[in-house]
Amino acid sequence: MQNKFRAISLSHKSAPVEIREIIALDEASIHSLLVKLKDFFSVTDTLILSTCNRTEIYYAHELDLSSEIIKLIGVEKGINSIIDYIEYFKIYNDDKDAINHLFKVSMGLEAQVVGDMQISNQVKRAYQATSDLDMAGPFLHRLMHTIFFTNKRVVQETAFRDGAASVSYAAVELIQELTSNTFEPRILLIGVGEIGEDVAKNMVHLPNAKVTITNRTFEKAQILAAEMGFDVIPFEDVMDAMQNADVIISSIMKSDPFITKNLVKTFDIPSYKLFVDLSVPRSIETSIEDVPGVLLYNVDNIRSKASETLENRLAAVPQVEQIIEESIEEFYNWKKEMMVSPTINKFKNALEQIRLEEMERFLKNADEKEIAVIDKITKSMMQKILKVPVVQLKAACQRDQADQMMELLTDLFDLERVSDKK
Fold first, then answer.
1. Greatest Cα pair distance in the chain
2. Count of other CB atoms within 10 angstroms of residue 70
3. CB 53 within 8 A of CB 144
4. How far apart are the first and last CA of the chain?
5. Which of 12, 53, 240, 283 could make an SS bond with 279 (beta carbons 3.0 to 4.6 A apart)?
6. Is 397 an annotated catalytic residue?
7. What global pTM score does this model have?
8. List of residues 6+ apart from 286 with CB closer than 8 A
């Protein structure tokens, strides 16, 4: 039975965040799981991708190992009742379905924010982890490099990756634009709920900024700050921190404005102070713009920018899908030829074995010059004999009719015996 490429997927499309965070795998867990899959099941061409939106395992094996792999995740995560989560996993046991899914994930078609730019780097890291353990064979190497090439085509030929398509990323992009002339801008993020946390994680695109975060629940701010390498302050110190910040991002739930015009008027603003209100309802009074040096952007301003970009990305989806289709067709042409390569090599070996045996039989008394001439002639004859069957076999691949021809060649030349003898 031939190995098939398969996939197991738990994503934002099948599971809420409270389930995804339970199943999510860190780097150490991914390494451990890869080793277990190699040792326990001898799987090949394995890829494990774990992000905030998905945990997926791709692997090549003759058998469907989805239940066993999900149980291994349970062991790795210390979840005794992993069976309760099986309904959240989607299983791809068809080779083409698994490959198509990996392409779509890698291009950002399956992301929460369509065209998410981070996913391509996450896929590259997953591939590197596999390569480091020598768990990628010719199949996966070729597949991944086809995906990387496809990603370049998408970037170069479409508008699919242009601009910011999420509110949080659009906010960070806006801050980057407005602070471009400020050396190491001081950014204060108030509130690390869902959108605040997403903004914090997008701050990686501002490597020179000095970021401080605060939250009513101090422990939550501490955990995020430690993960991202940011400073953290207690919520009661937020007023002093606002005075010192160049950029203040507010993402808190409050019925009344948290940042008022009267408060902002007390600040010393030598150049500018940028406020970004990501709260709904709004947590910053719009009248603060009356204070000299103050700039204010709210979630509606930013969302309109993100929405326009998202529309452009969605319009580019058919073009992206066409590029993916072309890449998968090219990959399958290679894959089909790979399937017949062992038979072609056995056929070549069989003919070479006959040639060498006959050379040894009839040239015992020949001199070196005669041997060289006959060696050249017989090699040329062998190449001509090989040419037609090899061309026909590769052509049969493209028609998905190679199996019969491979069987015929194997029987005619007893290739299994030749292989065993060799």
1. 109
2. 21
3. no
4. 23
5. 283
6. no
7. 0.65
8. 296, 298
Is 51 annotated to bind a ligand? Reply is yes
Query: Position 162: which residue type?
Result: D
The residue ranges of DSSP E strands in 40-147, in sequence order, are 44-50, 54-61, 90-92
Answer for the pair 58, 69: CB distance below 8 angstroms, yes or no. no
Do the annotations mark residue 137 as ligand-binding? no
Tell me if 53 is assigned to a ligand binding site. Answer: yes
The CA radius of gyration of the chain, in Å to the nearest whole number, is 30
Could you read off the pLDDT tens digit of each residue along the chain, which spans 422 residues?
A: 467 999 999 998 898 878 888 898 888 999 999 999 999 999 989 999 998 778 999 999 999 999 999 999 999 999 988 988 999 999 999 999 999 999 999 999 998 778 877 788 889 999 999 999 999 999 999 999 999 999 999 999 998 887 666 678 888 888 988 898 889 999 999 999 878 888 998 888 888 999 999 999 999 999 999 999 999 999 999 999 999 999 999 998 777 889 999 999 999 998 899 999 988 778 899 999 999 999 999 877 776 666 677 788 889 999 999 999 999 999 988 887 777 777 788 888 888 888 888 888 888 888 889 889 999 999 999 888 888 887 887 777 767 766 777 777 777 767 776 555 55
Tell me, rounded to whole angstroms, the distance of Cα 217 from its chain centroid: 33
Q: How far apart are CA 222 and CA 71, in angstroms?
A: 33
Establish whether 116 is an annotated binding residue. Answer: yes
Identify the active-site residue in 52, 233, 295, 396: 52
CB 205 within 8 Å of CB 148: no
Read off the tokens for 231: 């400073």
195 labelled as ligand-binding? yes
Residue count of the chain: 422
Helix pair angle (299-362, 138-157), 10° resolution: 140
Q: Is 193 flagged in the annotation as binding?
A: yes
Structure tokens at 20: 């995804």
Looking at this protein, which amino acid is placed at residue 147?
I
Cα–Cα distance for residue pair 94/4, rounded to 1 Å? 8
What separation in angstroms does the CA of 114 have from each of 41, 51, 98, 336, 364?
Answer: 35, 15, 20, 32, 72
